[in-house]
Amino acid sequence: MENQIEELRAKIIKGLKLTSKRLIEATAKRDGELVYSINHKIVRIKAKELLSQID
């Protein structure tokens, strides 16, 4: 039972990472920005800059 939960958790995390990367790539193609909240402060980051940090 716990093994199934761990497998499901791993699949969900993998899917979230893939989705995040695709969002950043699509936004970078449009030369857009992503908006995050870091320590209750709103921060805008160029998607191209963020993409260069991921790769």
Provide an overview of this structure.
With about 55 residues, this protein is of the alpha+beta class. It has one domain. Helices cover about 65% and strands about 20% of the residues. It has helices at about 1-30, 45-55, and strands spanning about 35-40, 40-45. It has a two-stranded antiparallel sheet with strand order 1-2. Strand 1 (about 35-40) and strand 2 (about 40-45) form a beta hairpin. Helix 1 crosses helix 2. The longest helix has 28 residues, at about 1-30. The model has no long low-confidence stretch (mean pLDDT about 95).
* Cα-to-Cα separation, first versus last residue: 35 Å
Number of domains: 1
What sort of overall outline do the alpha carbons produce when their principal axes are compared? Answer: elongated
Which runs of at least 5 residues are low in confidence (pLDDT < 50)?
none
User: Number of helical runs?
Assistant: 2
Strand arrangement, largest sheet? 1-2
- The succession of helices and strands, N to C, reads HEEH
Helical content stands at 55-70%
According to DSSP, the number of beta strands is 2
Radius of gyration: 15 Å
